[in-house]
Amino acid sequence: MNKMGKRFPEGFLWGGAVAANQLEGAYKADGKGLSTADVSPYGIMSPPDESMTAYNLYHDGIDFYHKYKEDIALFAEMGFKAFRLSIAWTRIFPNGDETEPNEKGLAFYDNLFDELKKYNIEPVVTISHYEMPLALVKNYGGWKNRKVVEFYEHFARTVFTRYKDKVKYWMTFNEINVILHAPFTGGGLLFEEGENQKNAQYQGAHHQFIASALAVKAGHEIIPGSQIGCMIASMVTYPYTSKPEDMFAAMQQDRQTLFFSDVQARGSYPGYMKRFFRDNNIEIVMEEGDEQLLKDGTVDYIGFSYYMSFVASTDPEHQKTSGNLLEGVKNPYLASSEWGWQIDPKGLRIVLNQLHDRYQKPLFIVENGLGAVDTLSTDGTVEDDYRIDYLQSHLEEVREAIEDGVELIGYTSWGPIDLVSASTAELRKRYGYIYVDRDSEGKGTNNRIKKKSFHWYKEVIETNGESL
Questions:
Q1: 367 part of the active site
Q2: Which GO terms describe its biological process (predicted)?
């Protein structure tokens, strides 16, 4: 079959993905409470600054809270079939533990979903995306505390009930495995001196697994026909050499991620993790019924982000490279982005096949993109051919994976409009098809400007990928 004959499925959900805390702004508007993002001025890998003395771009974002109609119109012009977003927990329950929700917060998302419906854009909603209520950290210890499961379930049931006629696709947690790599962002975890941090992280992960299973159960009850997925930060790991020890190291690194989808998609803890817990003196406290709940609350699909691959080596001398929350050995066969993230389109095809082979469930690529420094020229254009090249090469591999037999719901590239970077809390690192005239000091007109990639992606969607 020739290249042009390889089509994406009918009804494929083309679109883009964002997170509330990275673009909404209005961080105190209409009763919203403070979140973990609101005290993270230097990004998710840095310790929080609860004094809030540092300027925090998350506070203002790109003012999507007030400009969402303008932005959604631009997404519609590109032809979006889907838009992945998150609901800010602190807009609905400012402290996280209230009984009654904040009506103004609920109304904002009602209006947002209505605007999407006007253009026939399917919302794909992440329930919790890197911004849990700060009060749940201060008063309960974040996801270390089993009590937070109750608060999350109440939040999930509230939004399911409110938006049951407006949202079909949901995800329970964004990049749930991030609790191991950025514990404050991923789980609201702060550690005391001498505390077994790994134990606390995996205990927090267990509580999130239980919360996710409860949400799946609630979503299916409240919204018949709903699709509720998990979401992991995925990457494939290659062995540096054919040495068996390198192969084993690569497998072990992949398992750090796959453990999270194993539990949520298969409904039980895998044997390799039980051994890991034994070997590392980690003891997970489970309540009676937890194992059955995990079994009964498996997800309908696997959502995932993919930005780069990694290499594992048992040789400590090899040069390391940075990436999305992790670092690995530098791959000499790959180019890198300006932030050192290695660019590997073939790795996306490998991940798609790996996940589909492993779970036999539908997949959904809900993040993929290139962060780069874009230059706004004097004539008001942004020539971002490097972004087009990145996305095109990845989508060509996605099409090959579909030919391999992978069942794929859709593709929502990360940051269809420039927003605040999660990893570094800056606007200099841009992902969008739409340029936002705002810098990392918060200066600029905040005007929206179409980049060259805007027109490229519009054609990709119009042709259902045949233009690739």
A1: yes
A2: carbohydrate catabolic process
User: CA 461 to CA 459: how far, in whole Å?
Assistant: 5
Between the CA of residue 170 and those of 21, 64, 166, 174, 299, what are the distances in Å? Answer: 18, 21, 11, 11, 10
Rounded to whole angstroms, the Cα distance separating 447 from 437 reads 5
Among candidates 42, 4, 133, 122, which has minimal Cα distance to 467?
A: 4
Could you give the CA distance from residue 105 to residue 32 in angstroms, rounded to a whole number? 7
> Which tokens is 118 given?
């006007």
Give 372's contacts (C-beta < 8 A, 6+ positions apart): 337, 338, 384, 386, 387, 429, 430, 431
pTM greater than 0.90 = yes
Instruction: For Cα atoms 12, 364, 274, give the angle at the middle one, nearest 5 degrees.
Output: 160
The confidence band for 2, taking pLDDT boundaries of 50, 70 and 90, is very low
Let me know: does 388 contact 468? Beta carbons within 8 Å.
no
Name the active-site residue from 175, 367, 397, 400: 367
Question: What is the pLDDT averaged over residues 274-282?
Answer: 97
Determine how many CB atoms are found less than 10 A away from the CB of residue 358: 14
Edge to edge, the sheet with strand 310-312 lists: 237-239, 310-312, 327-329, 320-322
Q: pLDDT tens, 239-273?
A: 999 999 999 999 999 999 999 999 999 999 999 99
Average pLDDT of the chain to the nearest whole number: 94
Strands 408-414 and 434-436: unpaired
Q: Are 124 and 18 in contact (CB under 8 A)?
A: no
CB 170 within 8 A of CB 159: no
Which domains occur in the chain, in start order? Answer: 3-462 (3.20.20.80)
The torsion angle over the Cα atoms of residues 118, 121, 127 and 133, rounded to 10 degrees, is -50
Residues 6+ apart with CB under 8 A from 392: 456, 468
Answer for the pair 203, 159: CB distance below 8 angstroms, yes or no: no
> b/e per residue, 206-238, with b = 16+ CB within 10 A?
bbbbbbbbbbbbbbbebbeebbbbbbbbbbbbb
Alpha carbon distance 154, 89 (integer Å): 11
DSSP one-letter string for 378-440 = TTS----HHHHHHHHHHHHHHHHHHHTT--EEEEEEE-SB----TTT--SSSB--SEEE---T
pLDDT for 262 equals: 98
